[in-house]
């Protein structure tokens, strides 16, 4: 039996949304998952919503493939937004990694990822080299960089010297900051 997760989740508080979502996803109807995705994207500036989005993308990787262009547009905008909290930026980077992993290089989503790669790399390098970035954000940003480089190496080619410089500088960084 399929359930309409949007209807059920609209009745609970935001603090319980992620917990209940995890329980509802196995029996969710595809239409309600797609509809719920739209509501999450409208709230992509909130940590709780992006945490739910991450759970949704992990549960239904086809969603990232089918809605990749829209996801990339919204998530990269949130990732680049000035003043975004480190916690939100960390969750967004994990969501971006899910979309990138699910994409096909020759798809429209792949083209969006390729064109977004230089700006994403610049933002990632800025996060990683900042001494004020929390270790969790540094770790998720490095994971996003690895994901981007493995799936779209051509789009990362011009940034290779800057990436190498950053990685070498991280070897001299105290271990307490990196959670590998």
Shape, principal axes of CA atoms: globular
Unreliable stretches covering 5 or more consecutive residues: none
Structural class assignment:
mainly alpha
Strand content: under 5%
SSE sequence, one letter per element = HHHHHHHHHHH
Intertermini distance:
41 Å
Largest sheet: none
Number of helices: 11
Number of strands: 0
Mean pLDDT: 89
| Helicity level | over 70%
Rounded to the nearest angstrom, the radius of gyration is 17 Å
Structure write-up:
By secondary structure, the chain is mainly α. It has helices at residues 5-9, 14-24, 30-42, 47-59, 61-66, 68-80, 86-102, 108-129, 135-151, 153-156, 160-171. The protein starts with a helix and ends in a 9-residue tail after the last helix. The model has no long low-confidence stretch (mean pLDDT 89).
Please give the structural blueprint.
Blueprint: H1 5-9, H2 14-24, H3 30-42, H4 47-59, H5 61-66, H6 68-80, H7 86-102, H8 108-129, H9 135-151, H10 153-156, H11 160-171
Give a short synopsis of this structure.
The protein is an all-alpha fold. It is built from 11 helices and no strands.
Attribute tags:
180 residues; mainly alpha; 0% strand
């Amino acid at each position: 039996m399929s359930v309409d997760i949007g209807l059920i989740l609209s009745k609970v508080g935001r603090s319980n949304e992620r917990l209940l979502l995890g329980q509802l996803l196995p029996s969710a109807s595809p239409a309600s998952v797609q509809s719920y995705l739209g509501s999450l994207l409208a709230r992509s500036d909130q940590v709780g919503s992006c945490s739910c989005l991450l759970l949704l993308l992990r549960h239904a990787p086809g969603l990232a493939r089918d809605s990749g262009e829209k996801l990339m547009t919204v998530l990269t905008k949130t990732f680049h937004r000035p003043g975004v909290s480190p916690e939100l930026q960390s969750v967004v980077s994990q969501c971006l990694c899910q979309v990138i992993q699910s994409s096909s290089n020759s798809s429209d989503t792949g083209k969006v990822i390729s064109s977004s790669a230089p700006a994403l790399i610049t933002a990632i390098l800025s996060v990683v080299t900042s001494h004020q970035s929390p270790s969790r954000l540094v770790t998720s940003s490095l994971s996003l960089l690895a994901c981007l480089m493995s799936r779209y190496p051509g789009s990362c080619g011009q940034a290779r010297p800057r990436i190498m410089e950053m990685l070498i500088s991280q070897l001299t960084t105290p271990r307490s900051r990196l959670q590998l």
